[in-house]
């Protein structure tokens, strides 16, 4: 497949996921897979939608609703891989926390602020 070059303003026509460089440069995150870091970037992107929907809990924390099926679709992966990546972000990296809601409803996902030491408020 042969692709053409970008010309002029064409280079600005795309939306991008932003993945913090810290996830690649900070030694605390060296053991996290690149796929998990990509998923974290996608989850960060979804926070803007949550803010627009005013999805805040009683403490004012933003949460996102991102069902496993949407994770699978976003990453083009199977159920077991999506589940593994979410578990990696939650248990290995501590970058997310999931609150199960039951009754077939997707979990609420809270993204953790990796720039702040644990226990400090903004």
Give the class from helix and strand content and strand pairing: mainly alpha
The share of residues in helices is: 25-40%
Radius of gyration: 16 Å
Reading the helices and strands in chain order gives HHEHHEE
Average pLDDT number: 90
Question: How would you summarize the topology of this molecule?
Answer:
Elements: H1 22-25, H2 34-52, E1 64-65, H3 68-75, H4 79-92, E2 96-99, E3 108-111
Antiparallel strand pairs: 1-3, 2-3
Describe this entry's structure for a reader.
The chain is mainly alpha-helical and 122 residues long. The chain is built from four helices and three strands, in the order H-H-E-H-H-E-E. Strands 1-3-2 form a three-stranded antiparallel sheet. A hairpin with an 8-residue loop joins strand 2 (96-99) and strand 3. The N and C termini lie far apart (49 Å).
Keywords:
37% helix; three-stranded antiparallel β-sheet; 3 strands
How would you summarize this macromolecular structure in one to three sentences?
The protein is about 35% helix and about 10% strand. The protein has about 120 residues and is mainly alpha-helical.
